[in-house]
C-alpha cells in the first residue's frame, strides 16, 4: 500500500509556499534566459525552424570538449578515483591552476591561493558571502549576467551603474571613482556576458588604481573587494588580448578574486569544474564556505582538468580551433548585420571582441524589446535574449546573440530571414 501524498497537500499551493519560505526566497526570480530557451525548445520540438542564439552553452556536436579531458575522466573513473576530494580541490589541480596562471598570465599566486569547486557559481556566490552583510553597498555595471539575483539573495544595498555602447558597455574610471566610497564589493566581468566586449586595458588599469587608492584611504575600515569574473578570458579576439587587473596594477592583488572555470574555454559547461584564485590570506575562508556548501567538483573531473591544464600544447591547439569556430559564427553574424545597416535598415551590432556573444540592436518605432524579440522569433526564426535579462530594464533595442548552440551553416539562412522580417516591419 502506498500513500498518495498529493491528497494531503494544500489546495492553494502558492499561498502555502509563501507561508513556508523566507521573504528572500519569495522575492527570488527565475532566469529570463532559461525561460526563453525553454520556449525555443518547445518550438523546435514542434518542427519549427529556429536558430537558437539564446543560451550561453555549447552544442556538443558543434563544440566538443577536448579529447584529453574526456580520456582523463574515463581513466580516473576506471582507476576507482570516485571518493571525496578535499573541500578546496585536489592538490594536483590547485597546483596545475597556479602553474597555468603563472605560465599564461605571469601571475604567481601559488596553489595556496586556489579554491576549486563545481563550476564558477559556488565561488561566485561564495565571494558575495565572504565580503557582504545585508545592507552593505555593492556595485555592478549594466548590462551584466545574474548580478541582480546574487544581490537579492544577499540582501545588499546594490547599485546598478548604467554603461553605454560608446564605452563598450564597461564603466569609465570616473564612474568607478564616483561610486567607490563605502562600497564593499564591486563586480566586473570581462570578456563581458552579455555583450561580447572586452574592457580597455587603460580603463581597467585606472579602475584597479582607484580601488587601491580608495582602500589605502580607508585605513583599518573594511576594503572594497573586486570580484573579477574572467571565465571567458581565453576566448578573446587576438586584437583584444586579455588583461587581469593584477597584471596592470599589482598593488590591487590583495583585493581581487579571480573567478574562472573550464566551462567556457573548453566547452565543458556540464563537467562542473571551476575555481577562484585569490589572495592566500582569504583562501581558508573560501575553502570553508565551499566545504559547508558541499560544492566540490567530482574527483575524476578534477584529475582530468589538472592533466589538461598541465598540457600547454593541447590547450594551445584546442584554443586555436575553438576561437576559429567562434569567430566563424560571430564574424558572419556581424558582417550580415552590418550589411543590413548599410542598406538603411534599423539594425546595429558591436564588432565581436571576446566570449561567444554579439551585441545586436533592432530599433522599431513603437515596439518594445519584448515585441521585437517575439517578432524575430516568430517571423525570422531567430531566438535572442533582450538586455532586460541582464538587468538593463529599458527598451533599448539591444539583444544578446550567443553562438554556442548553432552550426555555422545555420547562420546565413537565418540572416536572410532576418533581413526579410526587418524590411517588412519597416515597410521598406
Question: What are the key terms here?
Answer:
alpha/beta, seven-stranded mixed beta sheet, single chain, Aspartate Aminotransferase, domain 1, 428 residues, Aspartate Aminotransferase, domain 2
Describe, in short, the structure shown:
The chain has 428 residues and is an alpha/beta fold.
Strand residues, percent: 5-15%
Order of helices and strands: HHHEHHEHEHEHEHEHEEHHHEEHEEEH
Mean pLDDT: 95
Largest sheet properties:
7 strands, mixed
Helix/strand/pairing class, anyone?
alpha/beta
Strand order of the largest sheet: 2-8-7-6-5-3-4
CATH class of the largest domain: Alpha Beta
Number of structural units classed as domains = 2
Question: First CA to last CA: what distance?
Answer: 69 Å
Helix content: 40-55%
What is the rounded Rg?
22 Å
Annotated CATH architecture of the largest domain: 3-Layer(aba) Sandwich
Number of helices: 15
As residue ranges, the low-confidence spans are: none
Name the overall outline: globular
How many distinct beta strands? Answer: 13
What does this entry look like structurally?
The protein is α/β, with parallel strands linked by helices and 428 residues long. It has two domains: 22-63 and 316-426, Aspartate Aminotransferase, domain 1 (Alpha-Beta Complex), CATH 3.90.1150.10; 67-311, 3-Layer(aba) Sandwich (Aspartate Aminotransferase, domain 2). It is built from 15 helices and 13 strands. The strands form three sheets. Strands 2-8-7-6-5-3-4 form a seven-stranded mixed β-sheet, sandwiched between helices. The N and C termini lie far apart (69 Å). The model has no long low-confidence stretch (mean pLDDT 95).
Amino acid at each position: 500500500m502506498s500513500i498518495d501524498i498529493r491528497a494531503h497537500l494544500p489546495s492553494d499551493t502558492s499561498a502555502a509556499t509563501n507561508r513556508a519560505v523566507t521573504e528572500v526566497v519569495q522575492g527570488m526570480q527565475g532566469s529570463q534566459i532559461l525561460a526563453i530557451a525553454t520556449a525555443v525548445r518547445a518550438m523546435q520540438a514542434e518542427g519549427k525552424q529556429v536558430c537558437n542564439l539564446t543560451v550561453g552553452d555549447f552544442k556538443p556536436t558543434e563544440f566538443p570538449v577536448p579529447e584529453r579531458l574526456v580520456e582523463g575522466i574515463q581513466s580516473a573513473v576506471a582507476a576507482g578515483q570516485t571518493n571525496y576530494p578535499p573541500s578546496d580541490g585536489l592538490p594536483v589541480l590547485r597546483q596545475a591552476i597556479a602553474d597555468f596562471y603563472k605560465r599564461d598570465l605571469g601571475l604567481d599566486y601559488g596553489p595556496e591561493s586556489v579554491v576549486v569547486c563545481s563550476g564558477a557559481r559556488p565561488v561566485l556566490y561564495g565571494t558575495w558571502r565572504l565580503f557582504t552583510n545585508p545592507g552593505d553597498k555593492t556595485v555592478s555595471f549594466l548590462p551584466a549576467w545574474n548580478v541582480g539575483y546574487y544581490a537579492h539573495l544577499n540582501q545588499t544595498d546594490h547599485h546598478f551603474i548604467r554603461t553605454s555602447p560608446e564605452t563598450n558597455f564597461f564603466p569609465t574610471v570616473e564612474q568607478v571613482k564616483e561610486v567607490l566610497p563605502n562600497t564593499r564589493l564591486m563586480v566586473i566581468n570581462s570578456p563581458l556576458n552579455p555583450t561580447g566586449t572586452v574592457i580597455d586595458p587603460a580603463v581597467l588599469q585606472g579602475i584597479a588604481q582607484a580601488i587601491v587608492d580608495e582602500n589605502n584611504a580607508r585605513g583599518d575600515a573594511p576594503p572594497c573587494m573586486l570580484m573579477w569574473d574572467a571565465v571567458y578570458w581565453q576566448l578573446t579576439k587576438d586584437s583584444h588580448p586579455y588583461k587581469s587587473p593584477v597584471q596592470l596594477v599589482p598593488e590591487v592583488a590583495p583585493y581581487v578574486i579571480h573567478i574562472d572555470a573550464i566551462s567556457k574555454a573548453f566547452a565543458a559547461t556540464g563537467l562542473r569544474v571551476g575555481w577562484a584564485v585569490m589572495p592566500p590570506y582569504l583562501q581558508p575562508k573560501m575553502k570553508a564556505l565551499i566545504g559547508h556548501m558541499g560544492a566540490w567538483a567530482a574527483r575524476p573531473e578534477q584529475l582530468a582538468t589538472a592533466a589538461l591544464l598541465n598540457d600547454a600544447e593541447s590547450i594551445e591547439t584546442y584554443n586555436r580551433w575553438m576561437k576559429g569556430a567562434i569567430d566563424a559564427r560571430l564574424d558572419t553574424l556581424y558582417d550580415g548585420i552590418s550589411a543590413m545597416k548599410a542598406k538603411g535598415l534599423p539594425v546595429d551590432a558591436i564588432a565581436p571582441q571576446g566570449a561567444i556573444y554579439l551585441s545586436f540592436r533592432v530599433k522599431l518605432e513603437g515596439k518594445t524589446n519584448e515585441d521585437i524579440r517575439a517578432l524575430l522569433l516568430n517571423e525570422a526564426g531567430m531566438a535572442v535574449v533582450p538586455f532586460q535579462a541582464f538587468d538593463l530594464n529599458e527598451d533599448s533595442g539591444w539583444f544578446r546573440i550567443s553562438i554556442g548552440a548553432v552550426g555555422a551553416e545555420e547562420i546565413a539562412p537565418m540572416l536572410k530571414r532576418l533581413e526579410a522580417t526587418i524590411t517588412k516591419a519597416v515597410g521598406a
